[in-house]
Amino acid sequence: MFRTSRASVDPVGWDRQTGLGGVAQARIVLEEQIEDHLKRIVLVIKRELNTLTPIRRLPTELLVDIFMRRLSGEKAARHKACIHRDYVPLRCGDARISILHVCHQCRAICLGAPRLWRDVMTNFSEEWMREVLSRSGNIPLAVLTYGQDLARWSKTVQLALNELPRTGSLTFFRSDFEYRMLTSTAPVLESLTFYQTEYDLPRNLDLSRLARLNLYRCKFAWEHPILASSLVHLDIRCNAPYLLHPHPSQHAIITVPSPPGCASSSSCSVSTPQLEPTRYASRAAPVDVRRYCGSGCILPLPHLVPLRVLLLKAVRMRIIHEDPKCQIDMEGLSAFGVMLAEREEKGHLLERLILNECFNLTEKDVRELQDVVSSISVEWDGCCNDDSSM
Fold it and tell me: What is d(CA 60, CA 106) in angstroms, rounded to the nearest whole number?
């Protein structure tokens, strides 16, 4: 008459059933864990096996990176040769031509990768120049012009310089085209390099984004307008008479930079606020340094990253700088390298002298160099003391 649940009639049987159900669920969970663990082990083993399996075709991106390294090596060798004056532009090949002749796959990849065609050189035919420009698409270019016969190569050079609005890097080697042909703005130009040019550097360029300026054996003066305010890297290796206009005593001083709020009486000054901060130690420097430099030019670079100056003539150059990362390379009768470091108590004098072993300096050269360093410290200390007494 009354219906009751099984639990009320047989509580022992009900507990037995629920217990068996919990064990079954636990077994299912453990089996799933075993399956997942086995899958992970298999994936690890297969991954290791794949590393030992021969690949019949490399990914396109990897091949493009390999080709880019090949082109970068050629560019580095070209830069070294240009500096040492043993470079013959017309005998230079194009690594892309050799890549195109490897196989059909390499040819197709090379022709279809615009960044492999960003380097534009003017020592090839007009037809090849047009092909390079068309393959490069719309990416920024790296243009390299040579000092060729203008009558023969004018069309090729003109084609390259017409792309100045999208040129990111521009290099001139023994060329005067920069004076006669650069008349437009360069909105994306970030790197500008000159090798061994006897002509005046361009003065009519709008270099709003110029970050790197490299001058090798060129005529240059610190008041030149090419020193853009956006510079972050400056590398100068020029002939001494054109570089600093030194005093007849053949002593010259570079001082960097001018401290905030310091009134400089120099008639020539350049401001480069984008360079990394470099502190200045003496208020008297902009005034006292003029007696060593015949033109009275002082170059305030308040944010200098590297400043490398290479003198190509036997000129004793006195340099005051406090940046421990600033390396001044000098080449005269006996080439030597000097690392300038900051002295703790003064903050602007030479602390130690590191000689470049590859130059094989004699003891006489070392003593002469040490005398120069000592004279710098004494003279600059005198300038600082005079200023502090005032």
Answer: 9
Please name which of 352, 316, 310 lies closest in space to residue 331, comparing C-alpha atoms. 310
CB 182 within 8 Å of CB 207: no
Which stretches of the chain are DSSP H helices? 6-9, 11-51, 60-83, 95-100, 104-112, 126-135, 150-161, 177-180, 240-243, 285-288, 363-389
The tens digit of pLDDT for each residue in 358-372 reads 334 455 655 555 555
Domain ranges in the chain? 57-210
- pTM, full prediction: 0.51
What is the bridge-based pairing of β-strands 327-330 and 336-339? Answer: antiparallel
User: Distances in Å between the alpha carbon of 320 and those of 166, 253, 279, 288?
Assistant: 39, 7, 12, 12
> Exposed/middle/buried for 149, CB within 10 Å: 0-12, 13-18, 19+?
exposed
- Distance, in Å, from the CA atom of 343 to the CA atom of 366, rounded to the nearest integer, reads 21
* Torsion sign over Cα 143, 144, 147, 152: negative
Calculate ∠ Cα 38-41-46, nearest 5°. Answer: 125
Name the one residue in this structure whose structure tokens are 């094989």.
360
Crossing angle of helices 150-161/126-135, nearest 10°?
A: 10
